[in-house]
Amino acid sequence: MELRTAILSDLVKHKEMGILQSEIESHFGFSRAHVSETLSILVSEGKVIERMEGKLLKRVWLTEFYPYPISGTIRIAMLASSEYVPFLASALSVCAENKITLRFRILKSAYDVMDSLISGSSEIALAPFYSQIVYSIVTRKIKILSSIASGGSSVFTNEESLQSNIGTSDTSTMILLSRTFMKSLEKNVEVYDDPHSAIASFESGKLKFITIWEPFCTVLRKKGKYMEQLKYEEALGDIPCCASSYRINASAADGKLFREIVNEYGKLIKDGMTSTKLGEAIEIMSKEMGIQQEIISESLKSYRFLEGVDRELLMRYMDVLKIPVSMSSIEDMFP
């Protein structure tokens, strides 16, 4: 295997841990000079980042997994959801104004998104409120920046399926919606990470029910053959589905930039989604998710976009989660 390919493949496996250059040399059996030359090329291409550990050791990471701040760059981790389009548009706008490079990653699960934030490989996490709250309480290392939206998810039924099970993502609002619909999650629950494969299982009859979010709800509605049994707002009302968050050890400069993004997001919501960056954000998400831009644009109508966080509403959400918590603990989740 070519050394370049071998290094990149191995770095994917090691994620935020990275690899020592000496480990690359010993593991793949190449000379120090050849490894150094290959790494220099990868660094110049922006694919990897190197960092000295002490005076002699050098550790290497894929840029997307680098667990330290990158000068002039803000990284956002998120799930594959059209709910994040307006926030992404706001981030694109603010970063362009400040000549900041914006990188983003769409990850498979809420766990992955939140772990990315905690590890340092992302500055902002866009994830279900459920996950944000759990990580905030358990780690005490993150602060919730803003709400994103409520609504935008539903339970669908495939009447032709002979099964009695439901497909849902885990550690997310989907699991709450599934619990409301099924009454119990003790059996007949199939947890998925990939919404595309989950929809394929649903349409083939392997799943009787599916709890899914936008833009995948719009995809199923347009099929015209699946019954929409329960909508988010019918089960959870105005409780926010998702939120944005950041690490408490963020720099003052980053904190200022985050506030600018949230202010821009609030302005975008109030102005009726008229940002020039909205189309760019839709195009980006379309390519990443493999969903037509028209579908993503239409799916935005399913959400009630929010900026602030109502503390009393959040207390009600904690009751839904069955997590006993004081108002002071809730206040600690915010800057």
Can you give a write-up of this model?
- By secondary structure, this protein is an alpha/beta fold.
- It folds into three domains: 63 residues, Orthogonal Bundle (Arc Repressor Mutant, subunit A), CATH 1.10.10.10; 171 residues, D-Maltodextrin-Binding Protein, domain 2 (3-Layer(aba) Sandwich), CATH 3.40.190; 84 residues, Periplasmic binding protein-like II (D-Maltodextrin-Binding Protein, domain 2, 3-Layer(aba) Sandwich), CATH 3.40.190.
- Helices cover 46% and strands 21% of the residues.
- The protein contains 15 helices and 14 strands.
- A six-stranded mixed β-sheet has the order 5-4-6-13-7-14, sandwiched between helices. A five-stranded mixed β-sheet has the order 10-9-11-8-12, with helices on both faces.
- Helix 4 packs across helix 11.
- The longest helix has 19 residues.
- The chain is globular and about 65 Å long.
- The model has no long low-confidence stretch (mean pLDDT 92).
